Each structure stands twice: as C-alpha cells, then as structure tokens.
C-alpha cells in the first residue's frame, strides 16, 4: 500500500503527542522541569557548540526533537513496592483471591516480575532533569572563567529563568564580553645560559606574539612547545613546571605586558644537555624472570642485546625499529618513535623504555621487550542457511609464526573449507553436494624487501613494511565453480601521522571457470528473457545448454532491424555471459594514498580521504607474444585484462553534540579497458546496492543507468555514490540513524550492444542517480556494533511513467540490511 509509510509516521506522531503529558509524571509541585538552555553573547544567540559545553545542567536528551528517553523512564513506576503494599493492604480480598488461584509463591513471582520490568524502564530511561539553581550558578562561573581565559577580563555573565506552564522552565545565559585584552611587550627571563641559547634558536616559533589576543590556550601551547623543544634538545630533566608567566594587566588600553620566566634548575640540579651512553635491549624480558642472570649478550653497532635464553632476534634487523642511538643527545621523540615502532611489529606483549643517569651525567637507555608466543593456532566454524543453500558447514584453521627469520617477521597460513547443500548441483542424492576449499599464506616483513636501498627516500621512521601473499580457492557446484590463484607484493609506509601509502607492485589474480555450462541454470532470469524471445519470435523451446547456440544462429542483423529492443536485450545478456564466464588473468599494479586525521577509534569529528590508482596488464601484454583466435594477448592461454582504474573516496564526520554525529561519504570510481580488453573483468567491475552502499536496493539490483533489466546482477565501469547519515543515541546501547543515499553505476565502454539508457552521457546522466532514504537501529556492544538499516526507494530513475519520486516509499518495497559495524 503506497501510503503505509506516511500512515506509520502519523501514528508515531500521535502516540508521542499523547505521551507528552507524561513528561511531568515525576516532577513534583515545587519543582520545574528544565526544557531548554540558550546562551546569548552580546545579545546574539550563541551557535558555538564549544560554549554550550560549559553548561552544567542540560535538558533531557532529545531524539529527533522528542524526549524519548524521558518517556521511556516514565513508563516505569518508582514507587512500585510502596504502591503494591498499599494495594495489598487496601484490597485484602482481591489479594487473597489471587493467591488462592495462583498460590502465594506464584503471586510473589508475578509481583517480582512486574518490579523487575519497572526497574528495567527506570534504569534504561532518563529521569526528568529538575532545574537546580546551584548548577545554573556553577554554569555562570564556568562561562565567566572561559571568557576570562579568552582575554575578556571585564566579562559579565548572568542567567534568567523563563517559567513555562505545566511546571517547566527555560534558562537563558546572558554574556556581555566587553573588549578582549591583547599581548603587548613580550620579554624573557631565562636564568640558564644553555636553555636561553636553545630558546633563542627557535624564538620565532613562539605562540606569544605582540598584538595577539590574550588567551590562556596560547600560554599552554607555548609552555608545551618550550618543554618539547628542551626535551628534544638533550635536557632530560626538564619539565613544564619550570616555566611560568607574569602578566601586567594594570594598563588601561586593554593590553598586557608578558614576561616568560624559566628556572635554571629542578631541585637545585642545573639543567644541562645529556647524551646517551649505552643502549641495552632485553629481548626476552618477563617480570617473573627479571632477577635471573643474563646468559646471552651480543654487541652490535654500539648496542647491547641481552637475553636470559638464546638471542632469538637478529640485531641488525631489530634495529630497524630502534631510534635511540649511543652518543646522541636525549630526545623524547626518539623514545616515543622507538616505542611506537617496536609495538607495531606485533611481536611483543609489552615495550618499556627506561633511562638511568650515570655518574658522568650521561644516560643509559634500557629497552625491555616481552615477546608474545611464537606460535598460535586458531580454528572457527559456523553453520549457514539460506534459500539457495539449505545447509552449510564451514571452517577455518589458521597458523601464525612470529619472528620466523629472526627479524620480527610474521608468517600466516590458513586453510578454509565449506560444504553446502546446493540446489544448483547436478548430484542431488547427497546432503552436502557442494564444496569450496581455499588456502592463503602471507609473510609480513617490517622493512622493505627489495634488492636496492630506499632509505634516503623512505627512512625507517616512516615504518616501511612488505607483505607477500599467495592464495588459492576452488569451488565445486557453487556458481560457475571458479578457481582462483592470487599473488600480491605490497609495500606500505607512513609519511606522517595522518598520511599512509601503499604500493602493490604486483597483485595478480588468475580466474578460471570450471562449470560454464551451468550459467543459465544459475542466472535464470536471463534464461527466461531469452526463452521468451525464442518462443515468441522463433517458436522454439530452448534448453539452458543451447542458449548460446540459439543466439549465434538466429540473432543477426535482420533480427536487429525488425526487433531492436529484443536484440539489445539478448546482446546485453550475451555480453554479461562473456564477462562472467571469461577465464582471465588480472595482473595489476596499484598505488593507494590515505589521509586520516582521526585521533582514535572513538573520534567522531575527523576527515578521511583515499585515492587509489590501478593499472592492469601493461607490462604483461608487452612481454607476451601469445594470442588467441580473437587476437587477444594471453599468458598460459588465458586472456590478459588490460585497463586503468581510479577510485576516490572522501568521508567527513561532525560531532554535533553528545553522541550525535553527522556522517558524510562520497565515492567516485572509473575503470577504462583499452587495447587488449574490451571490458572490465567481472570481479573488478563496479556494482551498487547492499548494506554498505545504496541501502534501498539489494546488491547488484540497480543500474546501469536508468535500465531495469531484472537480471540477477548488474555491473558497470563508472560508479558514483554519496551518503549522508545522522547518528544519534536512543537509549543506553541502542542507537538510531536517519540516512539518505544517492548513486548509480553506468557503462562507459561505448559498446553498440549496450543500450543508451545504460551509458553515461555527461551531465544529462545525472538524472539517473537513484535516491534511497531510510532509518536504522544499531546495538552497540562496545567491541562490536550490530546494525539493521531499512531503506526506501525514494527516487527510481528507471520508472517509465514520468513519476519517479516516492512511488514505492512503503513497507512492502523496502530493503532490510543487516550488518556489523557502521556502513562507512
């Protein structure tokens, strides 16, 4: 029914409006429910979220403008026990009647169940926020201190109450800032000649400059800058407590003179530059064996490697992750860089670095490494069920070997297999008549494994690493029984904290289809299309195995001239058949750049950008002299895919308020075949739809362009998608989302057998962008997030009646998307 969704929204609105009277359930006559806070700065309403962070008492949380957690809380009865005992004493006959029917024990059970139910609502809801004048006064003090820290020394803050009927109140905080103070003359008083000389070398980088506004944050930044400067210039004993500032605010022109004061000692010990004398690396440290004698000691390049047992690490290779050097001055940054890179090796449970001062005022550095277990084995299994696969059993066995070549390398090996009950299998006599087996082996090397040196371009502080991967899989009675072989050589490094690079010099995949004859048994909608045409125009009843012979025999130029639409349908299906069934070698090289300024996994306010450039088949086709009957270059009698592909992805997250986030994602991808290829391999083509994409359509269900083929899959070589999502907290671990997705795929091969509706024809094709809207419910378990998103087809570019908006926005045509973690 077309208006189901609108009716649903109306019912929700009516339900919530009737519930609004319930907001005051636990607000007594002498109390006021806080419904709104507003901040006015110099008579203008504040829009800066940083200012609202200083408000101590906030109204009840709103979900889309409605205090849903408060409604949830009010469903519970805080006085259930008292009310029950009161009812019991006032209605003894009713209570006795109940116990006679259910027994005393069962009655107590019902009572306890009701009590726990009420407690659940109370514990998971949010109690009413009762206005507290003390907290308003504390907010005034917070705001005053904030503006004072910003240089507004004459600021005035007050609050006023606006009482609303039905025991509600709104609070306005009124701020008059006056003019801010600025920095005037800046002088220094540095007692130590050593510190003074270091300071003057970098004086121009000071955060304090004449004319800048007087802000506390500038002084904190300057204090941190100076501390980092000294501690990275050999002053091991220095700490920020040695830095103080004096400000003269007696001037009447809203300016202040500043004096930077740095003491010359801590606890009467003068500051001086200290160097590293010895660096000792304990490679098998453990707390329970820390007192045992050292049995192995190896000296290498001025470093001492020590072990209670035999030394299990190659000193030369392990030093790729150590940046503390003998005879170098002490630096905080080398200490942190060493700790970070040693942890990145994933060979050590803990990394601890300590310094000890010697009698000659030098430092001995000790690095304590506690290794993880050298070997680990994992196994997991699962049962699956779907309409296609009635029963499935899968399992994976993995093996890991750390430090296999004594350079902190990690070898991973896994074998996985699945046994299924497939409807497509020829043999239906056995229960599990289909299977898939695969194996992968990878070697992670924490350095560049390459025959020449790149240290001058990519030094070791950029954490260069190499990953070598080999994999294979084989299917039986699953789809077309694809057999795959994969080989990857991947180099990665980090040019800065936020910028990462990956260069896959080789990422080769060989794909061979062993069950091509079953194609039209699997993709039945395509067979039905051709079967209908054969029956209508040729009066033939064809079998699935005879489809290609029928096309080659009957579908010619004469049929095209008389039936152009049907001709395109058949040629399109044949083209897809050729793509899917093609045995292909895909030898690519790829470079990926990633920018991510997220501080940690909890950060909800950051940007992300990734660009990937792929080139396939250029070198392989250049070296190959083999050709098939179509003139296509091959290797091992397999066609070589030749194309270029570019993917651009941008994501931005805004933390609107507490646990309310706006998330934006946009993706553009283009893949262009040339020379040796007329199309992109199916495994490297673009598709759209699914739980992490355009959520109002199922995977492969949309496009290309404004076509509506009705086939099992749809792919293209141009893709655009953009999503905007509002994420908010509902109650405790339950979170919600509203989203809008827009995108599509197109064909840009300019093939004559592809309909014009499927091609990208410049800006005019933007009308083919499909739009889906919806909402989601998420359950956050901290370590994992379970997600259900419901998508509605809002704009369908393939509809022919001219009405493409809101034609199927209802609960009969929606798409349910189950997923783990956020969609982007």
Automatic annotation (TrEMBL):
Pfam families cross-referenced by the UniProt entry: Omp85, POTRA
Any single Gene Ontology cellular-component annotation: outer membrane
Keywords: Cell outer membrane, Membrane, Signal, Transmembrane
Gene3D superfamilies to which the protein is assigned, alphabetical: membrane protein fhac (3.10.20.310), membrane protein fhac: a member of the omp85/tpsb transporter family (2.40.160.50)
Domain POTRA as annotated: residue spans: 129-176
Record's subcellular location: Membrane
InterPro entries: Bac_surfAg_D15, BamA/TamA_POTRA, D15-like
PROSITE patterns reported in the protein's UniProt record: PROKAR_LIPOPROTEIN
Coiled-coil region list: none
Record flagged with keyword Metal-binding: no
Keyword Membrane: yes
Every Bacterial surface antigen (D15) domain range: 642-812
Name of the protein in question: Surface antigen variable number repeat-containing protein
Native source organism of the sequence: Lutibacter maritimus
């Amino acid at each position: 029914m077309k208006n189901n969704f609108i009716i649903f929204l109306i019912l929700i609105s009516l339900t919530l409006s009737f519930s609004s009277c319930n907001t005051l359930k636990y607000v007594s006559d002498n109390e006021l429910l806080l419904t709104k806070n507003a901040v006015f700065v110099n008579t203008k309403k504040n829009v800066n979220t940083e200012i609202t962070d200083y408000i101590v008492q906030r109204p009840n949380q709103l979900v889309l403008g409605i205090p849903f957690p408060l409604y949830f809380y009010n469903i519970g009865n805080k006085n259930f026990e008292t009310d029950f005992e009161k009812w019991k004493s006032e209605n003894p006959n009713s209570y006795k009647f109940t116990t006679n029917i259910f027994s005393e024990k069962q009655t107590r059970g019902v009572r306890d169940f009701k009590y726990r139910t009420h407690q659940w609502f109370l514990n998971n809801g949010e109690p009413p926020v009762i206005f507290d004048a003390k907290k308003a006064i504390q907010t005034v003090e917070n705001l005053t201190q904030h503006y004072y820290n910003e240089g507004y020394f004459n600021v005035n803050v007050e609050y006023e109450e606006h009482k609303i009927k039905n025991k509600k109140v709104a609070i306005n905080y009124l701020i008059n800032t006056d003019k801010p103070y600025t920095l005037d003359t800046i002088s220094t008083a540095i007692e130590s000649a050593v510190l003074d000389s270091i300071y003057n070398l970098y004086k121009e980088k000071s955060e304090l400059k004449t004319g800048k506004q007087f802000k506390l944050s500038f002084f904190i930044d300057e204090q941190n800058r100076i501390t980092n400067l000294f501690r990275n210039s050999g002053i091991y004993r220095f700490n920020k407590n040695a830095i103080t500032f004096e400000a003269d605010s007696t001037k009447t022109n809203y300016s202040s003179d500043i004096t930077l004061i740095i003491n010359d000692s801590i606890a009467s010990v003068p500051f001086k530059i200290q160097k590293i004398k010895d660096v000792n690396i304990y490679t098998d440290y453990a707390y329970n064996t820390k007192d045992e004698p050292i049995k192995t000691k190896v000296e290498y390049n001025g470093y001492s490697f020590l072990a209670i047992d035999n030394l299990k690490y190659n000193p030369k290779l392990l030093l790729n992750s150590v940046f503390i050097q003998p005879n170098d001055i002490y630096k905080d940054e080398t200490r942190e860089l060493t700790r970070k890179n040693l942890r990145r090796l994933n060979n050590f449970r803990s990394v601890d670095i300590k310094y000890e001062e010697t009698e000659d005022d030098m430092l001995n550095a000790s690095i304590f490494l506690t290794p993880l277990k050298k070997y680990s084995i994992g196994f997991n299994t699962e049962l699956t069920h779907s309409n296609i696969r009635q029963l499935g059993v899968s399992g994976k066995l993995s093996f890991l070997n750390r430090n296999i070549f004594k350079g902190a390398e990690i070898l991973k090996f896994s074998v996985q297999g699945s046994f299924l009950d497939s409807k497509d299998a020829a043999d239906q006599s056995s229960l599990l008549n289909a299977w898939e087996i695969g194996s992968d082996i990878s070697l992670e090397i924490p350095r560049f494994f390459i025959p020449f040196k790149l240290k001058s371009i990519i030094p070791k502080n950029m954490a260069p690493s190499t990953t070598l991967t080999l994999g294979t899989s084989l299917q039986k009675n699953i789809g077309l029984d694809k057999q795959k072989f994969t080989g990857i050589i991947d180099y990665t490094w980090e040019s800065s904290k936020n910028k990462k690079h990956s260069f896959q010099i080789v990422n080769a995949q060989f794909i061979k289809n062993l069950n091509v004859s079953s194609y039209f048994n699997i993709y039945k909608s395509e067979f039905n299309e051709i079967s209908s045409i054969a029956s209508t125009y040729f009066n033939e009843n064809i079998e699935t195995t005879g489809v290609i012979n029928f096309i080659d025999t009957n579908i010619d130029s004469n049929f095209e001239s008389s039936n152009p639409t049907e001709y395109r349908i058949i040629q399109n299906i044949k083209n897809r058949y050729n793509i899917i069934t093609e045995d292909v070698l895909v030898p690519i090289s790829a470079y990926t750049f990633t920018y991510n300024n997220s501080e940690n996994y909890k950060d909800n306010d950051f940007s992300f950008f990734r660009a990937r450039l792929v080139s396939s088949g250029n070198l392989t086709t250049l070296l190959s002299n083999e050709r098939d009957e179509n003139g296509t270059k091959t290797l091992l009698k397999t066609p070589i895919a030749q194309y270029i592909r570019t993917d651009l992805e941008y994501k931005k997250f805004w933390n609107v308020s507490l646990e309310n986030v706006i998330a934006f994602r946009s993706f553009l991808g283009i893949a262009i075949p040339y020379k040796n290829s007329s199309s992109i391999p199916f495994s490297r083509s673009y598709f759209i739809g699914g739980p992490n994409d355009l959520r109002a359509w199922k995977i492969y269900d949309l496009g290309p362009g404004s076509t509506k083929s009705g086939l099992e899959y749809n792919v293209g070589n141009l893709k655009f998608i953009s999503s905007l999502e509002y994420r908010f907290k509902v109650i405790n671990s339950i979170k919600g989302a509203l989203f809008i997705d827009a995108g599509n795929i197109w064909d840009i091969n300019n093939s004559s057998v592809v309909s014009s509706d499927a091609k990208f024809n410049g800006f005019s094709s933007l009308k083919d962008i499909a739009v889906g809207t919806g909402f989601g419910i998420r359950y956050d378990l901290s370590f994992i997030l379970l997600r259900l998103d419901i998508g509605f087809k809002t704009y369908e570019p393939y509809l022919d009646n001219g009405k493409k908006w809101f034609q199927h926005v209802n609960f009969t045509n929606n798409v349910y998307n189950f997923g783990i973690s956020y969609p982007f």
